[in-house]
Write a structure and sequence with these properties.
- This protein is an all-alpha fold.
- It has helices spanning 3-19, 25-91, 95-100, 106-158, 162-173.
- Helix 1 packs antiparallel against helix 2 (25-91) and helix 2 runs parallel beside helix 4.
- The radius of gyration is 48 Å and the shape is rod-shaped.
């Protein structure tokens, strides 16, 4: 298609050469030749730039497709994979098994690894807190059991009659 302007310029130059007088033909031929070369170079540059633009459009389309794919993968990560991973970990699945079962890109696998590590640390902390509460509850239970036993022993030693209990308590609270 770029040849059309060059052909039109050549045709115009030929017509101009035949329409001018013999003394003006040499300058017209020189100017016509320079014009044909300039039009040819301009057309070649237009074609080159058109190819560059087409190539850039193709790259842009490919980049947009890649961005759309990554966006879809990220949406899948946030909406589907993260809840699934957290749910599996809370059910007691091993982190490595959960990660191995997923088909994701390396970048998203790194994000999931961070989430898995955070959830595992949270579960470990929760388990540690539960063990601490159980330990405290056992200690309190042991103290209560010991106090109940000591109270039974005191009842057995001092009797269960109100008079003996009042005498016992009155003697300990009376001023000296």
């Amino acid at each position: 298609m770029w040849q059309l302007p060059v052909a039109a310029t050549v045709a115009a130059a030929i017509v101009a050469v035949f329409l001018v007088s013999a003394s003006a033909r040499t300058p017209v031929v020189i100017v016509s030749a320079v014009t044909v070369v300039a039009v040819g170079l301009a057309c070649a540059e237009v074609v080159r730039r058109g190819q560059v633009i087409a190539e850039l459009r193709d790259r842009l389309a490919a980049q947009e497709a890649e961005n759309a794919r990554q966006s879809a993968e990220t949406s899948r990560l946030a909406g589907e994979l993260l809840p699934h991973v957290v749910g599996e970990l809370r059910k007691g699945a091993f982190p490595e098994d959960v990660l191995a079962s997923l088909d994701v890109s390396a970048e998203h696998r790194a994000v999931l690894r961070s989430v898995v590590d955070a959830v595992s640390a949270e579960e470990d902390l929760r388990g540690s807190a539960q063990r601490a509460f159980v330990n405290i509850a056992r200690r309190v239970q042991a103290i209560v059991h010991q106090q109940a036993q000591e109270l039974r022993e005191m009842e057995d030693r001092h009797g269960r009659t109100p008079r003996s209990s009042a005498t016992c308590c009155a003697s300990t609270t009376a001023p000296r």
